[in-house]
Amino acid sequence: MRQNRIVGFSLFAVSIAFTTFATTAQSAIVPWDVRGVSAESAQIANLGKAQDLLDGKTLAHAQVTATFDLLNFDLSGANGASPNFPATSAGYQTNFAEEATAWIKIPAAGAYTFAINHDGGYSLNILGNTSQSTGQGNAKTDFIPMTFTQAGAYPVDLIYFQHTGTAQLEFFASPGTYTGYSQAGANFQLVNDVSHGGLAVVTDPGQLSSVSIPEPSALVLLMPTIALVMRRVSRQKMPVR
Question: Which of 169, 161, 170, 151 has the alpha carbon at shortest distance from 218?
Fold first, then answer.
């Protein structure tokens, strides 16, 4: 009888611990995964060169993988942005590339506009919807409208590169279709700034009951992007001097 009580109490304690852990894990902020690579001597002047650097086809000075709650980078540190692009350091703050990946939660079907502040070039891929910039010219903002047919979690792959000059990368979103931050009805927030109403980054959507997964027909469209993300995760380590 005493043994049964001990076993029962142990199971009860484990149940409480598991429930507490699960609740904490689901309520915590899930960060972006960001991999940065700085070139040893190559000129990273376009997306093709950036991809070669990320793929290990170009000699790297440094490679760093880190997590960040927000994609909010600026080498100047202006407006509270982080100056710490992964893999950059004194003397190596030009000719580098970054790749940020995550799943973002789209809470309801409809139109959304993503905004990228960038000084340098980028390539954005969300469920096969793509946008890119060559990185030529001064700092600018691109507004990228996309329509989602249903709520769910979608993989995002964002590649950024900097050739020369100041580096900046900030990633925002707003429900609706807009062409400017101050346009009536717009509510642009940094993606994953959930405290201010920004779209959330989530873990594997299959583990979260609050996130719906697209129907099988939609998953067929999703597979190329998932394969792209998985290929980059499994990529072999590049040569580092």
Answer: 151
